[in-house]
């Protein structure tokens, strides 16, 4: 028999605190996207300052690898701590690490090429640890506060803050570059003024402000009732905490017998855990791995899109500020036209048609789009990149977000017992970020560029077809292994 406080959470009406929790939990994802997507335009500035044109592929790959490696570690460590000592106790720590690391990125020491990149890489690694820790904690906290009718929409809304982080990153980059360009008297296509070294640092540090503003509210959040009642075994405290934040009277949720029956006692690394939850953990981890291979491989398109829609095949020369501005503008266009609409559609449909159907739909259409780009790439798109290519490129982001990129964040927060929920979400996310390493670093090395900056067309074609095949594998994993969690309480999902 379910505890009254948990039943009340599952059946509660949508209230002000739910929306407040979305903002508080989502600000970590906002900061994550800001810091991830500000790097491509900033690399144009850094390249003009410390390199003759742009950082070599080795430097770019190292920066990506360090941030993703930190994310893997953060998801595993903070995910486990969230189950061992409580979600709230480590939630503020993850956010504070993100804030301090963002500021540290801007204060990367020295002014020589190697010293700056080493320092920046170190702080990007720490930033990745904080971002990684935020993933399992945000998803778990939102799932445990939400009611079962709209739980998917609430978790998806938290994740959708990434889209607004991309827009904020691009907007800040464009504004800062415009201000610095107007205030500089020496900027030209052949000369980058010394104050550009301040511009990229300022853009990085500004990303810490939204996260810092929500730190107080994170520390004021009570522990989730499910953790307090089911893990700490303090049902009375769980009821008192929920009375403070939700419109529920204590008399409605107070238990006649405050101690609930003891749950099955088995450890994370046990045969019983594998028998009960091994399939679910495999499904969540494999789907997240596959979608991140594809999602982070979008780096493959950057040079082609830049030359086709910004640099006009090299006929138009741009200074460092203009290059960073145009790359940021392109990112903002993609986010507004495809990324954010994908999130919005998911929020609307996630509790109507279910997680599994959306994930299947996303993988299926992503595979079609990648095949549509990849198969004729060498014969058509390589020689005639146009708005048709741009449209298909945007579709990959739409169906990633109205699909597996969002659902892989939601499902692990709903499938596992309270005492393993944050840990298992962290494991699935860490496996996903290993896929991101393969996607962003491995494919970046695989695609060789010619002297004009274009990727090798044959390698590009093969890469795109492989990505379409990866999406088909994701579709199969989802169909055969992923369990639907829509409309059930978290405890029902666990038992089933």
TrEMBL record:
Identify the keywords attached in UniProt to this record, alphabetized. Answer: Membrane, Phosphate transport, Symport, Transmembrane, Transmembrane helix, Transport
Q: How does it sit in the membrane?
A: Multi-pass membrane protein
Example GO molecular function:
symporter activity
Cross-referenced InterPro entries: MFS_dom, MFS_sugar_transport-like, MFS_trans_sf, Sugar_transporter_CS
State if Nucleotide-binding is listed as a keyword. no
Q: Where is the Major facilitator superfamily (MFS) profile domain?
A: 21-486
Describe the family membership recorded for this protein in Swiss-Prot or TrEMBL. Belongs to the major facilitator superfamily. Phosphate:H(+) symporter (TC 2.A.1.9) family.
Q: What is this protein called?
A: Major facilitator superfamily (MFS) profile domain-containing protein
């Amino acid at each position: 028999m379910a505890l009254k406080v948990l039943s009340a959470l599952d059946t509660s009406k949508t209230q002000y605190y739910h929306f407040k929790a979305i903002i508080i939990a989502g600000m970590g994802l906002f900061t994550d996207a800001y810091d991830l997507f500000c790097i491509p335009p900033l690399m144009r500035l850094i390249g003009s300052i410390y390199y003759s044109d742009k950082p070599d592929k080795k430097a770019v790959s190292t920066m990506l690898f360090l941030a993703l490696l930190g994310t893997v570690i953060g998801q595993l460590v903070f995910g486990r701590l969230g189950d061992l000592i409580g979600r709230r106790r480590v939630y503020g720590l993850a956010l504070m690490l993100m804030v301090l690391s963002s500021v540290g990125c801007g204060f990367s020491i020295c002014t020589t090429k190697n010293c700056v990149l080493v320092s920046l890489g170190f702080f990007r690694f720490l930033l990745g640890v904080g971002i990684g820790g935020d993933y399992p904690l945000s998803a778990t906290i939102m799932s445990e506060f939400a009611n079962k009718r709209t739980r998917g929409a609430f978790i998806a809304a938290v994740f959708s803050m990434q889209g607004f982080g991309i827009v904020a990153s691009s907007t800040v980059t464009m504004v800062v570059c415009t201000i610095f360009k107007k205030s500089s008297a020496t900027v030209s296509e052949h000369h980058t003024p010394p104050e550009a070294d301040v511009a990229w640092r300022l853009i990085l540090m500004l990303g810490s402000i939204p996260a810092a503003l929500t730190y107080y509210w994170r520390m004021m959040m009570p522990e989730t009732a499910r953790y307090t009642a089911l893990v700490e075994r303090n049902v009375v405290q769980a009821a008192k905490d929920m009375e403070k934040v939700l419109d529920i009277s204590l008399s409605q949720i107070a238990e006649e017998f405050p101690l609930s029956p003891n749950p099955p006692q088995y450890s994370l690394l046990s045969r019983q855990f594998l028998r009960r939850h091994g399939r679910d953990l495999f499904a969540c981890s494999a789907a997240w791995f596959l979608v991140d291979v594809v999602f982070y491989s979008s780096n493959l398109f950057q040079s082609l899109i830049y030359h086709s829609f910004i640099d006009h095949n090299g006929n138009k020369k741009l200074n460092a500020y203009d290059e960073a501005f145009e790359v940021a503008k392109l990112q903002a266009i993609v986010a507004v036209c495809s990324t954010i609409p994908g999130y919005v559609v998911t929020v609307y449909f996630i509790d109507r048609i279910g997680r599994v159907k959306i994930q299947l739909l996303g993988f299926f259409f992503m595979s079609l789009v990648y095949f549509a780009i990849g198969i004729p790439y060498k014969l058509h798109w390589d020689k005639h990149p146009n708005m048709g290519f741009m449209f298909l490129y945007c579709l990959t982001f739409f169906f990633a977000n109205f699909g597996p990129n969002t659902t892989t964040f939601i499902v692990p927060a709903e499938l596992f017992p309270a005492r393993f929920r944050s840990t298992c979400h962290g494991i699935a996310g860490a496996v996903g970020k290993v896929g991101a390493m393969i996607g962003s670093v491995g494919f970046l090395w695989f695609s060789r560029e010619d002297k004009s900056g274009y990727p090798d067309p044959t390698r590009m074609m093969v890469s795109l077809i492989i990505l379409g095949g990866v999406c088909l594998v994701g579709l199969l994993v989802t169909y055969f292994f992923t369990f639907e969690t829509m409309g059930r309480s978290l405890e029902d999902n666990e038992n089933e």
